[in-house]
Each structure stands twice: as structure tokens, then as C-alpha cells.
Please model this.
Amino acid sequence: MNVGSVTSAGDYAITYVNPASASNGRYDVDDHVFSPGTPRLSTRWRTSFGSGGIVVDSLAVVGSSLYQVTYKRLEGTTNGTTSFARVGSGWDKFTAIEQSNVGSRTARYGLRNDGVLLRWTNGWKTVSTYPGFAAVKTLGLLSQTATYDTFLATTNGGALYTIHIPASGAAVVKKVRTSTWQGFEKLVLEKCGNTGALLTAIDKDSGVGYVYAVGHANGAATVIKGIGTAKTLFKDPVQLRDTEANVYLNGE
Model:
């Protein structure tokens, strides 16, 4: 899997984690995208290929504002251009953001510091709110379909949960583990097989990434197998999932 990050200098970097030998992670600094010190939060980094180069899109919180970020670089060149389209203000109150794209369906998520998880669909026109997540420390997208998204989340007390968000209706929360997960500040997941996920759980205090194979999510019966630790230090301010377009997570 590719764990993307943004350095303190505003450069985009990738840690390549090999599930066959997690200790062999390789860290490469690629493109300069942001001004130094930004952003504070970012969604997945989604790359599309075509028209003689790459186009990357994400959402990022810079200061108190959320921006749609587009980065373009022509094939064979080392420098690209970044454009920012401001979405709105008040995002200094959010502790996590993510977006899920499946075909024509796009859902954007934000976890607010009062424990409310918000989802925007139909562009930014339709807002759904899911209260009750004040104990959540971090979350990562685990599964995405045309009818639902599911997150894997840790709590400050160390528990591990899935949060299933259907296209309509209430969120469904299931406990996966009861303890030991409180040390992770970021969860990055990638598709693994037909019904599972590869997880890099990042302890930003030590800069270590712990790599797990996660079976099909099924509450406490979910199989989680430790693979190892990625040797590269995850010290960059922001970590995220680096993926190609149309690669969908299917961990639930």
C-alpha cells in the first residue's frame, strides 16, 4: 500500500509499505504541492492518469478553511501546478476529514470536535449529522459502495470500532476490539483481496507504522493479523491514503 504524507515543507511524500515484509517500507519525497506548514488535514490523495500526465485531487484544511485541491503535472516533468478552490470556513473545529467516490456518488465527511460526524452529499447541498462520537480519536475509510461507507475508528480509551454510514438511515456502530488501540493517531487502509483491508496504524509520537491484515469486518469476530512495523518513520505532519481513481475499499 501507499501511505501518502505532506511534509512540513509542503512537499508530497509516499511511504511504500510491502505487506510481504512491512519492515521494508520505502520513503520518497515527490512533488511540492503546498506552502510550508500547510495543510492541517487532508483526505485521500486520488490520482488519475491521462492527457499526457497526472491529475490529483483531494480536500484539505488550510487554516480555518476547507479547499478542493487539484494538482497537475505533465509526464516527464518534475514540477506541477496546484490550484485551490475554497469550499467554506469553520473547519478549524474539525479533527478528521475524508471523502468517498464510487461512480457518480461522492460523499464528504468531517468529524467535528464536539463528537458530531457530518456527511455532505449532492455536492455540498445535503448534510446528514451523526452525533455521539466524542470518544473517537481517529478514523479511516474501510469500505465504500454505492449505498454505504464504513469507517474503522479508534477511541481515546483504546477500543476499535466500525462505523457504518448508509445512504439513508442511522449509523451502525460495532465494537471490533476493546483495548490497546489508543496509541494510534492515524489509520490508513487499502484494499486487500476481495473482502479485506491492509491497515497501517500510525503512532505519530514514535513515528512508527504498525501494519495489519484486516479480514472482512464482522464486529468482534473480525480477524486482525499483525504483519510488522514499517521501518520508515512516519514523522510528517499529515498522513493519508494514496490511491488511483476507481480503486474502492471493500473491508466490510
About this structure: The CA atoms of residues 53 and 74 lie 4 Å apart. The chain has no helices and 21 strands. The chain has a mean pLDDT of 93.
